[in-house]
Amino acid sequence: AALTVRFLTRRFIGEYGDMEFIYSHNLTVDGREILFHIWDVPNSQEQTEEGSSEEKRIQWADSFVLVYSICDRASFNILPLKIQIIKATKEGQSQEKVPIVIVGNKRDLHHQRVVSSEEGRLLALSLDCGFYEVSAAE
Fold first, then answer.
1. 64-69 and 32-40 as β-strands: parallel, antiparallel, unpaired?
2. Cα Rg of the chain (Å, integer)
3. Residues above pLDDT 90, as percent of the chain
4. What is the per-residue pLDDT across 95-113, written as a single tens digit (0 to 9) for each?
5. What pLDDT does 46 receive?
6. Helix (H), strand (E), coil (C) string for the chain
7. Where are the transmembrane segments (predicted)?
8. Engineered SS bond to 89: which of 41, 58, 69, 105, CB 3.0-4.6 Å?
9. Which CATH superfamily is domain 1-43+50-133 in?
């Protein structure tokens, strides 16, 4: 949620509940107007929901940004399964590769890091995804 709000408003808010939101945002990229619809789902909610809700979100989306905390091994470890589900759902219907980016957040908290940058890069490479490390706070 912090990255979504930072993208939309350029502001950082540190605390969020486990709420699900859909945001819409216009942005000009390379002279073209692009309309983003962002379905922001906290990981804790995804883990407790039925598969049909998750499948509905996957069908709805054209691309995926999966965010983990570099300070939370469990948030990183769930990524391969999430990506496998996304690819099975999206690519099973068409031959097109689904755009997926893995983002390690909280780069500013390097002193609390438990997932290395190299681990993130290697996971993204092995799953054919993009990779970035960022700090929503900075």
1. unpaired
2. 15
3. 41
4. 678 899 999 999 999 999 9
5. 47
6. CHHHHHHHHCCCCCCCCCCCEEEEEEEEECCEEEEEEEEECCHHHHHHCCHHHHHHHHHHCCCEEEEEECCCHHHHHCHHHHHHHHHHHHCCCCCCCCCEEEEEECHHHHHHCCCCHHHHHHHHHHCCCEEEECCCCC
7. none
8. 58
9. P-loop containing nucleotide triphosphate hydrolases (3.40.50.300)
Closest CA to 38 of 19, 11, 65: 65
| Rounded alpha-carbon distances, angstroms, from residue 74 to 12, 66, 79, 109 | 24, 13, 9, 17
Provide the pairing of β-strand 21-29 with 32-40.
antiparallel
> What is the number of other CB atoms lying within 10 angstroms of the CB of residue 88?
12
Q: Please state the length of the chain.
A: 138
Q: And the tokens for 67?
A: 């965010």
